[in-house]
Each structure stands twice: as C-alpha cells, then as structure tokens.
Specification:
Rossmann fold; 12 helices; 373 residues; 6-stranded parallel beta sheet; alpha/beta
Amino acid sequence: MRLPLLKNTKVFGKTVFLRADLDVPLSEVGSQKSEVRIEDDTRLLSVIPTIEYLLQQKCKIIIAGHLGRPKPLNQESGIKNQEFSLLPVARWLTCHSELVSESDEMLKRVQHDISKVRLGEFDGWEIMPNLFLLENLRFYEGEEKNDPKFTKKLADLADVYVNDAFAVSHRIHASIVGITKFLPSFAGLHLEKEVSVLSKILINPKQPLIAIVGGKKVETKLPLIARMYFIADYILVGGKIAQETKEFLKIEHQKTKGKKAILLVADINEGRTGILENSLNNFIEIIGLAKTVVWNGTMGMVVDHDDFNHATKKVALTIIKSKAYSVVGGGDTTEFLRKLGLINKFSFSSTGGGAMLAFLSGERLPGLVALGA
C-alpha cells in the first residue's frame, strides 16, 4: 500500500492539522472523585514522534481528535458534555516532558496554567507556542456526518493535513475523510508504522503464521477469520466467539475452497468464562511452532481473578517464549497485557481495534483511501 508520507514532503513553517487518536480511558480519582486521570496513555504516546517531527520543522500544529461518544450539540447551545472534554488530554500534553526540550523549562506549565484559546470557530487550548489542541470534535454534528461545511471550517485552520489516527481510519468522518478534499494530505509516522506492520502480516509473513482470534465482538471477528483461511497456517479461536459460532465456523471452514489454514475452535468451560484446558494445551503446542503471530481478542472473561485470566495469560506467555514476530491488538487484550507488564514484550502493539480487524480482513479503510492509498 502506497501512502503519501509526511516524512517525504516539505512542511517547514506550515500550519498542520494533525488528526490524532485521543480516545483514551479515563477514571475519576480523589475522595470526591473531583479529578480525572488518564488510565492508559498509549494512544497519546503513539503520536509523540509525529508531533516532535513537526516541531523540528517549525510547524504550527493543531491537534484534533475525539473522546468517547458524546451527544453532539448545536454550537449555539454550547458544550455541555464535560465528561467527554479533552481537557485531561490537554493537561497531559502540557505536562509531558517529551514535548519540551531541557532548555525550555519555562514551557513546563502545571495543570492550572493551561490557556484556553479560540481557533476559528473552535474552542481549544494552547499547549505551548505553536502547539494547540481542539476540543472534542464529536461535540459537533458535522464530524460524524462528514458534513462539507463543517469540514471546510476545519480545513481553513491549516495549510496541510496529517492523519496519525489509525484507530479511527475505518470511519467516514470529517476529520478523517472529508478534510483531505481541501488540504494536501499525508500519513503521520504512527499511521505509516501501523500500515507497514499489518501489511507484512498479509504479504509474505514468516511462516508458520498463527492467527489467534478471541473476544466477544463476533461480527467484527468473522471477516478476519474468513480472510485468514487463505493466509495463516493455523487459526486458533477462543473467547465468546468460539462459544457462539463453533459449529458455524466448522461448517464454513469445511466448505471453503482453496483454504490454507487449519482451524481449531476451543471448547468452552461450564461457566462459559473461558476455554477448557485441553483446548488451551492444543493452542500452546501450535503457538510454539510459530514464526509470526497475530492476536486479537482474549480467550475468555478478563477480570481480577486468576481462574478466569489463566488461558489468556498462558497464551501471552507462550507467544513471548516462542520468539515469533508478534502483533497484538484489541482493547481488552492490550489492556490485559499492559496490566501484566507484558505488552512491551510483543513485537508490535496496534492502537487500532476495529481498524486493525478491518485492515487485516481486507477492507479498504476510508481514511487511507482518502489519503490516496
């Protein structure tokens, strides 16, 4: 896939509209739950290389994105969805040391010093000179509707558009698709990396390639399994999808012509919380053969109880021990691995859940198509 890359274009001194993935999990802390904390900043960290590159190019950067699923409101009525405000992200950016050189200690502001600004018709914050963040784009109806008038207002803020939000590149939204019609558009460093890594799964991966599919979103996993019939050597299915579609998958696999993969669908325990030990042992034996592993979805319920987490943890440790090139994605899976301190032992962790599944399933992601891919 050929993308127009940020690193191959001249952006020195330009104003850049940077679409980032800012949809991070939040939690309320403090005795009165008066403070909001970002639980996992992986997605924010993923955009740092692109921000740093643009700062080195003396660009003015306007970062934009969304958080959660707020109900859009009319601009005239004001923003009242404060639980979905990107203020915690603005504070994170303000305080994050990787954005500030050692010689610029004066720019390291504390949370209460953050400055509100108005850019065009949009509220936002000044993070530091030449670096700004817009408030949640989903506060505006035009974002998810990909409204041309709304899109033009976004485009008028900048000279260049950069998409570094792989996780939402399967959405036909104004800041993902529409804006590319108004501005020269390029793929950011993280988006480039995601596409490069996932493409290698589909094109000449080191074999045996083992695809491990679990979790509970059956409708998004079935297309991936169908595609992997012709790419993977083995497909291992666990979690809720194994529980709900076992017979269907076996029938589909039997009647699929030209398939390459051997399919194993796990047996589920009586409590329907995970896979049986004999299925897990079969999975472990096959994973041990792998040269490449792609994994999306847990092997059962993931809660604070070792009995439920056993299979998912064992699969993770076996992948790590195998020394195979390993790619993992999906919110529940990566969150579980992060809590165990195992996420960095995988070769690559995708920030995309649905986007990763769509890409590996062979769909043409609208955000990538809009860039000219």
